[in-house]
Write a structure and sequence with these properties.
Length: 264
């Protein structure tokens, strides 16, 4: 190989292979604080990543200046203030809660490895970029912010009740009571593929696997369409410029879940 070709190779950088570009959801540095952002491209000449921030501006930054949801810094970096619509406190929807419960048997079959039409379980188990890419396939579809939050809360209460109990107790100022040895904790059942996961990974499993599958199933029911059509409709909602804020909620909700789930 000629010296000119060697020089060309040496001056060209490669992106972090674990990142899903475009679309990786991150908390990225800007003015000494971190904000929700999406990695949209990589410049092989400058070795920097272009990040679109929730505020609408874009900055090219080094890899060390942002954290993905699977990195420790995601849980601890200082957040800047972000003006977002407030989700109604104490929102209730008994009909939706009942519909979510009807999806539980399908989710339990997925956890047991018996049914995974969307292949989310397989991607989660693969880890790396396959697992990270799941975040791009999460969204509320036609559900409101309040409905989406309620679905997520219902799933956490059912599938990771020990962590959900911690969060509720902290908000009420109650002392945490350890789960009894014979208590019914689905994610810890014998034969459960997630039984060896850390608390952080169990939270990821709910938000990246069970939540989107539940939204898909509810969308199928709401519009009387197929699984593939429901997934496409959810993705279409994400591409709509007027509703393309789902990812900001998702990042902030993930951050809050991890902090509350681990501050014991």
């Amino acid at each position: 190989m000629s010296q000119r070709k060697l020089a060309k190779v040496d001056s060209t950088y490669l992106p972090d292979s674990s990142l899903a570009i475009p679309g990786e959801l991150v908390l990225a540095l800007s003015e000494r604080l971190y904000y929700p952002g999406r990695v949209v491209s990589f410049n092989s000449k400058t070795n920097k990543y272009k990040v679109d921030y929730a505020s609408g501006h874009s900055i090219s930054i080094e890899r060390k200046k942002f954290f993905t949801r699977y990195e420790e810094g995601f849980q601890t970096c200082p957040l800047g203030e972000l003006a977002m619509p407030v989700i109604m406190d104490h929102y209730e929807n008994k009909e939706l809660e009942s519909q979510v419960r009807e999806v539980y048997p399908i989710l339990y079959a997925m956890i047991a490895g018996e049914n995974d039409l969307s292949n989310r379980l397989e991607a989660f188990q693969q880890g790396g970029k396959a697992r990270r890419s799941l975040a791009q396939r999460v969204g509320p579809g036609s559900f409101s912010r309040e409905e989406y939050a309620l679905i997520n809360k219902s799933l956490q209460s059912e599938f990771i009740p020990d962590l959900a109990t911690i969060k509720t107790s902290k908000r009420l100022g109650q002392k945490r009571t350890p789960a009894l040895e014979d208590s019914d904790i689905p994610m810890k059942r014998k034969g459960d593929i997630t039984r060896e996961y850390s608390d952080t990974m169990r939270l990821h499993f709910v938000t990246d696997v069970l939540l989107p599958e539940t939204v898909t199933r509810l969308t199928m029911r709401r519009h009387n369409i197929s699984h593939a059509q429901a997934e496409e409709q959810i993705m279409q909602c994400k591409r709509d410029d007027h509703t393309d804020t789902w990812w900001v909620d998702d990042i902030l909700a993930a951050r809050e879940s991890f902090l509350e789930g681990h501050s014991l």
